[in-house]
Amino acid sequence: MSGAGKIFVALFSGINVGGNRIVKMAELRSFFEDLGFSDVATYVQSGNAVFRTDKGDAATLTKQIEAAFEKKWGFYSRIMVRDLSWFERLVSENPYPEVAADHTKLHAYVLEREPTADEAARLAEKCTGSERFEIKGDVLYLSAPDGLGKSVFAGLIPRTLTVPGTARNWRSVQALLAMAAQAGEK
Hints:
Layout: E1 6-12, H1 25-34, E2 38-42, E3 48-53, H2 58-73, E4 79-83, H3 84-92, E5 106-111, H4 117-126, E6 132-136, E7 139-143, H5 152-161, E8 165-169, H6 170-184
Antiparallel strand pairs: 1-3, 1-4, 2-3, 5-7, 5-8, 6-7
Helix pairs in contact: 3-6, 4-5
């Protein structure tokens, strides 16, 4: 099926963190192949998979993969599925190009949906440190000058925004885009 279908990226939340909910990437690749996807590749242990399919859109694929994943591994992992054009937009719309070279200072939160104006305003009230953020559709860009690990604000994002999501540093974002683009050329 190589060459036919659309390229997608699946971003898993809450696997292989702190020695819990362990999923080996070779097993994850096999899992995607068993679901009928092709050109499957994974990136780092936090759970990122690039794949090709001609069946379904991002929302349909998210539900299918989440259900199959929970059945196979016995626990739920929120999964965000996005297509190649979405990833291209994510990178091209980066509002902080001046910090993109340092992947520890720029992060993208892939959100389940676009936050409401009230949700975004509540989050803005909490952003009192050196961090800056901007929301564009279903992406929250975070510039954290001292790094994510030292950012108090980063820890407040999930509880304050209350929109489910998963974060990736800029290196991961760029690597996933490159992997997806390469798969799209096949």
